[in-house]
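Is 4'-deoxy-4'-aminopyridoxal-5'-phosphate placement plausible here? Inputs below.
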Amino acid sequence: MSNIVSQIGNTPLIYLEEVSKLTSCKIYGKAEFLNPGLSVKDRAALSIIENAEKRGDLRSGGTIVEGTAGNTGIGIALVANAKGYNVKIIIPETQSQEKFDTLNALGVELIKVPAVPFADPNNYQHIAKRIAKEEMRTNPNGAIFADQWNNLDNMSAHYSTTGPEIYNQTNGEVDAFICSVGTGGTLSGVSKYLREKNSSVKTGIADPKGAAMYNFFKNDQVKATQGNSISEGIGLGRVTPIIEEIEKVDYAYSIDDRDALPYIYNLVKNEGIILGGSSAINIAGAVNLAQDIGPGKTIVTILCDHGSRYQSKIYNTKFLKDKSLPIPDWLRS
Ligand code: PMP
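Reply from A.M.:
I modeled the complex. Tokens:
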């Protein structure tokens, strides 16, 4: 295979110098922002599409429908374009302009809807399901609902690729893995694989404020923490089939944007890596985990997507000022 699809995955594992020094651990970031769609979700998109093809659910000219915070939609669109499918994306209108622009550039049918809680029948995920059902009923070329929160093909992408890559890139010497949860595909798939290889590998969740996974894994209660986060693509409020696949999480952290964002600003300035907000939560989580299990341990986290996707938010002085968030020196005007 020589098209763009073959370039998904096999991302480098990058040594994060400053946080490693800070904690006396070796903290590595899996560079998912180097996937063709600039995010970790390319893997899930490819797995969902290829498994649907194998089952015979998708045929040439068919349509893929998905509700997404953006990155899954971008992953789906680039795989679909390369393979000859159409794409309909339902997205909350609060997501970054850069994601809308990328989805438009990819030529998807983009349906922006008001951001309302999951409990509301007009939440984007429910609208996507209804549109998918209608498309399946009426589209002569067939359609599928990608359904990333419930579709275990999302998780299996990480079980069969991200997990093994991390294990091999650390020569099997990974002591702990931590990341945040959007659908939980990454956390469940990677931790399942690593634990099967070595049952003493520790796992952790870095949860943004306002999400429920911290309390779920720490206190067995599906209850959102106080506050909110500007991070996109993470922050789950309910237990899904993918979350149910996670046997246990050893360490849970609830992380404030104010504590997390400086890590990615330092990475820009001192290590030349430009990341999005969920990576900030992940790195803050890795630092907490290192402080709990270190020193001398090898810890891996995920660098989920590229910062160019948030130029108008995380790297924009006015946005940061309005949200009373830390502003890096070089962005002050
Ligand atoms: N970070 C970003 C920027 C994302 O878009 C997503 C996926 N929505 C995640 C992290 C979380 O990945 P997962 O769905 O595998 O939990």
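Short version: Residues 39-41, 69, 71, 180-186, 232-234, 276, 278, 304-305 surround 4'-deoxy-4'-aminopyridoxal-5'-phosphate (CB under 6 Å).
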